[in-house]
């Protein structure tokens, strides 16, 4: 029956059904007539077996899934990716592939990929030999510089350093405690603002300008930034879509700064939150995501049938 009505069985991987983004996707999916289950990835077990990979949720087998919508937090990226991979090996379509999730969660690897695709990013260095640190700061045009933990999220782990002495001691301290970091030129003219563009499929469906709170340079909503809808230029739109494609994503939150030499990419989020962007732009992004997942899952099914 489900085949004829276009009804799908979708699984949202999320810690809790009550989280804003999860709730919105659940409601949007149900409204479109699908069977939706919210599954806590940390309560899933996997049986890895030749030819017949299995997934159990609360000890019941999780079968006959048409599409997976992962909402995996940064603290459990690896475990989340392994579970997505298990679904993928069962032939299930995933709105975010395990590979793309892992790629996006590594800031250094992401920037390397974006730069390799000739997309503009702030000048960035990764230092292995600390004795050469002063020289590498010169590559960035000197201080101020932005020091970032590779695993930073919500702006926690992003430091503005004003002087070479300060930068060197901060970097030495972080390195000593085994933190992996990158150092970036500080884009002063962004004035504490950045842009979040939300991509679904091959389209930028919403974008907002975020302005950091007073006395703050980080424009994360979690750091008290305020946001307003904004129109992208054609150059920015093309850059955002290319960045999403390079990262192998079809749903993404792309962040960039407006600099004197044009837009510079900061990061591509594989599990972008819906609350800030929906509240700011009044666009029903959850519904657009569900429609995109329907299209992609249908295509994925056709592809695997023709292969078989
Ligand atoms: P996170 O993943 O923790 O959000 P980001 O790289 O996105 O880390 O940085 C957080 C915020 O800090 C950005 O949204 C931006 O406002 C500011 N920021 C980051 N890098 C720079 C930079 N090179 N120049 C100026 N501001 C920056
Ligand atoms: Mg960010």
Task: Give me a quick take on this structure.
This protein has helices spanning 2-5, 20-31, 77-89, 98-104, 107-116, 133-139, 164-176, 234-246, 275-281, 285-307, and strands at residues 9-13, 35-39, 44-47, 54-57, 60-61, 67-70, 93-94, 124-125, 145-153, 156-161, 181-185, 193-200, 203-211, 226-229, 251-259, 262-269. The protein has 308 residues and is α+β, with helices and mostly antiparallel strands.
Mean pLDDT: 95
Number of strands: 16
Major beta-sheet overview: 5 strands, antiparallel
Terminal Cα span: 23 Å
Order of neighbouring strands in the sheet with most strands: 14-13-12-15-16
What's the Cα radius of gyration?
21 Å
Polypeptide structure, described:
- This protein is an alpha+beta fold.
- The chain contains ten helices and 16 strands.
- Helices cover 35% and strands 28% of the residues.
- 38% of the residues are buried.
- The longest helix is centred in the C-terminal third of the chain and has 23 residues, at 285-307.
- The mean pLDDT is 95.
- It has a five-stranded antiparallel β-sheet, with helices on both faces.
């Amino acid at each position: 029956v489900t085949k004829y009505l276009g009804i799908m069985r979708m699984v949202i991987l999320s810690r809790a059904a009550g989280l804003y983004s999860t709730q919105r996707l659940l409601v949007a999916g149900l409204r479109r007539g699908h069977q939706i289950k919210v599954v806590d990835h940390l309560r899933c077990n996997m049986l890895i077996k030749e030819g017949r990979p299995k997934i159990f949720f609360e000890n019941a087998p999780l079968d006959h899934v048409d599409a997976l919508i992962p909402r995996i937090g940064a603290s459990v990226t690896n475990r989340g990716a392994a579970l997505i991979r298990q679904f993928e090996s069962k032939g299930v379509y995933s709105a975010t592939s395990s590979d793309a999730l892992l790629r996006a969660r590594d800031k250094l690897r992401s920037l390397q990929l974006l730069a390799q695709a000739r997309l503009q990013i702030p000048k960035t260095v990764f230092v292995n030999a600390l004795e050469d640190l002063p020289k590498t700061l010169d590559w960035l045009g000197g201080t101020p510089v932005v020091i970032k933990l590779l695993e930073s999220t919500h702006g926690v782990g992003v430091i503005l350093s004003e002087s070479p002495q300060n930068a060197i001691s901060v970097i030495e301290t972080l390195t000593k405690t085994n933190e992996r970091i990158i150092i970036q030129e500080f884009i002063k003219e962004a004035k504490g603002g950045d842009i979040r563009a939300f991509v679904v499929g091959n389209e930028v469906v919403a974008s907002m300008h975020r302005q950091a709170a007073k006395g703050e340079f980080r424009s994360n909503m979690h750091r008290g930034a305020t946001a307003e809808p904004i129109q992208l230029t054609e150059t920015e739109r093309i850059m955002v879509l290319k960045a999403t494609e390079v990262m192998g994503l079809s749903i993404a939150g792309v962040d960039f700064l407006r600099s004197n030499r044009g837009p510079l990419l900061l990061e591509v989020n594989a599990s972008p939150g819906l609350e800030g962007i929906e509240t700011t732009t009044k666009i029903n992004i959850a519904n657009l995501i569900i429609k995109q997942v329907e299209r992609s899952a249908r295509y994925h099914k056709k592809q695997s049938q023709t292969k078989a």
